[in-house]
Amino acid sequence: MTFDHPSIRRLVRLALEEDIGRGDATTTATVSAGIPGRATIVARHPVVVAGLPILRVVFAEAGMGAARTELRVEEGKTVGSDTPIAEIADEAARLLTIERVTLNFLQRMTGVATLTRRYVEAVAGTRAKIVDTRKTVPGWRLLDKYAVAAGGGENHRFGLDDGILIKDNHIVACGGVGAAIERARSGGHRLLRIEVECETMEDVAEALGTGVDVILLDNMAVREIAEAVRRIAGHARVEASGGVTLETARKIAETGVDLVSVGGLTHSAPAADLSMDLELLQ
C-alpha cells in the first residue's frame, strides 16, 4: 500500500484541521518560533509497531517537509517497554503542534497490529489464517487493513466491489442460499469469487450443491464448525466468523478451517501507549 493514496492524505488533512483549528494557542503563547528541537516517539509497553510511513504524510500536510526523521525500529517488529521508535528533528514549536495528530495515527495503527499479532500467535501451527473484516473506522479502511497486515494478519475484502459475499440479508432477499448463489453467479463478474454465509448445516449442504467458492460459517459452535469442515471436505474454502475471541480462536482454527475472520481486530483494538518526548537542541 502506498501512503501517498489520496484518501490517506485527505484523512491526515482532516485530522490536522480539526486539531489545530485557527492555530495552536498554547504553543504560540509559550514557545518561541525558530528554536530547534528533537522529538522522540516512545512505546511505553510492548507493541507491534505499525504506521511509521504516516509520519512523512503528517509532516508534509503540516508544512514540515524539511523535518528530519530517523526510524529506530522496523515496521511490524515487536518492541519492549520504553523503546524509542522514531526521532524527528524540526522547530520545537512545530513538533508540539503536530504531536497529538502524529500520536493518534501511530497509536491506533500500532494497537491494531499488536492485537492482530496476538490472534496470529494464537492459531500458529494450524492451517488457519487470521483475516480482518470491513468493521473499520470510517475513512480509515486502508490504514486499518494495513495495520492488520503489519501484525501478520491477512486482508478480507477492502470494499463491496472487492468480491461477492452473500450474507443473511441477501439470502432473505433472494429466498434462500441456493437462489442467492445462482443469482450471484449469473449477475456477478465472472472473475469475482463467490462466498456465502451459512448459519446451519442445512445451509452448508445447500451451498455445497452449488459449487460455491467459499463457505462462511457464521456464529457456529466449535463442534458444528468441525462437522461442517468434515462435510465440506475441501470442496470449498471454509471461513469461520462471529464472536471470535483470543480464548476461542485456537479451538476454531483446530477444526481445519482456512480462515478465521475477526471484526475485533479493527473495531475493538485498544490504542497503543505511545508518547512524544521533546528536547531542545540549542
Explain what this protein looks like in three dimensions:
- The protein is an alpha/beta fold and 282 residues long.
- It contains twelve helices and twelve strands.
- It has helices at residues 6-20, 25-30, 54-61, 92-97, 99-122, 141-150, 168-174, 177-187, 201-208, 222-232, 249-253, 264-267, and strands at residues 36-43, 47-48, 68-71, 78-79, 83-91, 129-131, 164-166, 194-198, 214-218, 237-241, 259-261, 274-280.
- The strands form three sheets. A six-stranded parallel beta sheet has the order 6-11-10-9-8-7. A four-stranded antiparallel beta sheet has the order 3-5-1-12. A two-stranded antiparallel ribbon has the order 2-4.
- Helix 10 (222-232) links the parallel strand 9 and strand 10 (237-241).
- It is elongated.
- The relative contact order is 0.16.
Question: Can you give me a brief rundown of this structure?
Answer:
By secondary structure, the protein is α/β, with parallel strands linked by helices.
The percent range for strand residues is 15-25%
Which sequence of strands runs across the widest sheet?
A: 6-11-10-9-8-7
Query: What is the terminal separation in angstroms?
Result: 38 Å
State the helix count: 12
- Low-pLDDT windows of residues: none
Into how many domains do the coordinates divide? Answer: 2
Which structural category fits the helices and strands? alpha/beta
Arithmetic mean of pLDDT: 96
Radius of gyration: 23 Å
What's the level 1 CATH class of the largest domain? Alpha Beta
- Give the SSE order as H and E letters: HHEEHEEEHHEHEHHEHEHEHEHE
Biggest sheet, in brief?
Answer: 6 strands, parallel
